[in-house]
Amino acid sequence: MQLDDIYISETSFRLPKASLRIHLYDSLMLKNSQDLGITTKKFKVDNFGKKSTVAFLDVSSKSKDVKFMPKKSDAKLMRPDVICSTICAQELVGQIEPIDRPKEKISFYMSNGFCLDRLSDNINEMSSKYLKPNHAQIGDEDFIVQQNQSLDRFTPPLFVLNALTNAAQSFSSQYGEFKGDNTTLGGTSQSSYYALSEACQDLKRDTAMAVVGSSNGAGVYSGISNQSRVSNDLFESEGSSFLLLETGLNIKGRGSNPLAKITAIHDSKLIPSLNSKKQLVVGCDFLLKNKISDTCVFSGCYSQEDHALVESKLKQIWSQTNSTFPVWGNSGVANNFIDICLAIEIMQKKNLKTIDCYNRDIFGRESLVSLEAI
Amino acid sequence: MAGQNPKDFSTSGLKSHGVAFVDKDVSSLYTNESEQIIEVAKYDRKFELLIATYKLFEKRLKNYLVNSDPMRSGVILGVGLDVTPIEKLNNYMAKYLAESELAFLQTLLDFNSNKDESLAKLQNPLDISSIYIAEKLRLAAFQKTLITACTSSTQAIALAYKSILNDEADVVITGGTDSIINLMAYTAFGKLGVIAKSDKSPKEYCKPFDVNRTGALVGEAAGLSLLASEEYIKSHNIKPRFEILGYGNSLDGHKITSADPSGDGMRRALQMSLNMSGVDPKTIDYVNLHGTATRLNDELELKSLMEVFGDSCENTSVSSTKSRHGHAIAAAGIQEFNLLCNCMENNFVPASRNLEKPIIDSGIDLLKENKNKNLVIGMTNNFAFGGVNSSLIIKKCE
């Protein structure tokens, strides 16, 4: 889709130990997460030795996030990625005068990754309590009553809300006051492309301001779910990322300076497959046809080996390639908008006129977002 | 089947009993599927319902898609939360119970590990349904999955319509699937206080819009619908059955735990839907309400609807059908959309079953008894946890 009047006016994101675009830019000099002091955790994701390394968000009331930290009564219902999304939502609109925020008319499209990872301890406890008694007693009515009551006792009262797939959208809407047309898409990085596409459609039609956001959970559950599609050890991180999009007219009206213009968004229109473990490839023809720059930011790699392979392919298409994978791995749905944050910073620092952002999801669906400097 | 005890687990000892479930063994519908798909379906009930639904309509859908352009054909489904059916993992879990505090995760590893990795039973739980449909029908334009809880499939229909309106696609398969009929979800929703509690038979205890309502009847469903542009319909010689006139989507931005008591978000969704459709509320013959039978929501929904419709709703027939088929959460939208279509085709307005003492007795036609009525324009509304409000307006084609 070619676009001629859609601008990015604010960005906000959170990754482990990173919250400013300059952090992303500086990370390009680093080789791994240890270089930034990020603590990672390793999980077994199959019975044949495959592992997943995960970097978790650290939500600390001592950090600069304290200004936008949600109320304690809300925070207890939130996963860390949801807290970070809520912080990003507020940070995003914090610079805009309330009079310039038509909250009932701001479109809001979210993408959400896995929701159960931070709840796996709860699930483990609940399921263990349910099954702990002697199995010979199965079928005994008294035993079933005892089992069910035990499960009921150990089920947190607000577990459903903790696990809710649209929790990040709900809290971001509450704290950021975006109340217009909306949805939450899940659960791979392609859903962030779709969220951006929905927002662009609204801006082309009759909307002046739109927010796109993403909230990514990561851990053992996502590792187990994704492992069959990846040949080597996985590397992923939690993250949240948000963009404020506006039409040129709206930006002019409120006298703002946009960060970049989105000139086109494309996806590869690949029909994904469930049945076979297809080799994830890079669609060179699709990229050569649609790229507008000699520089790209890329994401959508799942292991170190995959990253090396993708990078070598992309170097045949772009002379300059950039990726945050060595430090944060794959941050799922958060990747796409984080790439855009990094791309804006690269354009500013290197005085580039254009840049492309490439992503590929776990099913091999590819997307390309092209930006132009202001 | 409404108001029965679940098949796969007992509710003895819990505060709520009874569910509305698909009582046929649907596995016979997909016996020709690959081993992997069958294994995933055994684990994930919502995926099983989706593929069974697809198989029922496969021939018809393929007929409609003859000579369609894959690049202009897409799928958008609403689906529910990841599932954790502990009652299905009993055998795998047993060996870890005595010695491991991480029994559940060990169980998942065992359950999912296979030397032939293409046979993994646990896959990305949110995307598999839309990808399954896309792969079967060669839908390349997009494969979207919406996860806005009880509005998921309502929004899926709305966004499918939007994609055709914006010329992104000629034809879109839309709908959704969900089931919370597993012990962990049932217990968790029960703890949240949204499932009806009563000593009566489960068939009777869900009472939308009744002063004595105590909550929802847990349900499950999957459903599909095909939306196509006017040009596509003409060029493929398809006789359309309904026209989508418009939709409304809004966010409360209030609290995750409850709807905005002012009803502002609900009113905005309904108004947006009316504005986009360009219809006078007076001309809407029947509204299928969300009507979960929870205390706050039912009252708020009726109040919001009456405020938006104004004086013109005296003759508007409204009801909730959830006391019949239960609350299918992410699939509620497609279930009630398809039901609305069916009612409109038959000029039949279903009453809210179990409604004895309505919360209001005038100002709107809140049905206690079924009736026959000429239905031309209909509306269906759904509202979700997290303050998402969605509304659709459709017109029967002559």
Q: What proportion of the residues of chain A is helical, as a percent range?
A: 25-40%
Low-confidence stretches of chain A: none
Would you tell me the structural class of the helices and strands of chain A? alpha/beta
How is the largest sheet of chain A built, in terms of strand order? 5-4-6-8-1-9-13-12-10-11
Low-confidence stretches of chain B: none
Give the mean pLDDT of chain B: 92
**Major pleated sheet of chain B:** 6 strands, mixed
- N- to C-terminal separation of chain A? 20 Å
In DSSP terms (H or I, runs of 4 or more residues), the helix count of chain B works out at 13
In CATH terms, the superfamily of the largest domain in chain B is Thiolase/Chalcone synthase
Number of domains of chain A: 3
Q: Indicate the CATH topology of the largest domain in chain B.
A: Peroxisomal Thiolase, Chain A, domain 1
Report helical residue fraction of chain B.
25-40%
H/I helix tally of chain A: 14
CATH architecture of the largest domain in chain A: 3-Layer(aba) Sandwich
Average pLDDT of chain A:
92
| Largest sheet: spatial strand order of chain B | 5-12-11-6-7-9
How much beta of chain A, percentage-wise? Answer: 15-25%
Count of strand segments of chain B: 12
The CATH topology of the largest domain in chain A is Peroxisomal Thiolase, Chain A, domain 1
Shape of chain B: globular
Per-chain topology:
The complex is a heterodimer of chains A (374) and B (398).
Chain A: E1 2-14, H1 21-27, E2 40-44, E3 51-55, H2 72-75, H3 80-93, E4 107-112, H4 120-131, H5 141-154, H6 159-163, H7 167-176, E5 182-186, H8 190-205, E6 209-216, H9 220-226, E7 234-237, E8 239-247, H10 248-253, E9 260-267, H11 284-290, E10 295-299, H12 304-314, E11 320-322, H13 325-328, H14 335-350, E12 354-360, E13 366-373
Parallel strand pairs in A: 3-7, 4-5, 4-6, 10-11, 10-12
Antiparallel strand pairs in A: 1-8, 1-9, 2-3, 6-8, 9-13, 12-13
Chain B: H1 35-43, H2 45-64, E1 73-79, H3 90-93, H4 103-112, H5 128-137, E2 142-146, H6 152-165, E3 171-179, H7 183-191, H8 202-205, E4 220-228, H9 230-235, E5 242-251, H10 264-277, E6 286-288, H11 295-309, E7 317-319, H12 322-325, H13 332-345, E8 348-349, E9 365-366, E10 371-372, E11 377-384, E12 388-396
Parallel strand pairs in B: 1-2, 1-3, 6-7, 6-11, 7-9
Antiparallel strand pairs in B: 3-4, 5-12, 8-10, 11-12
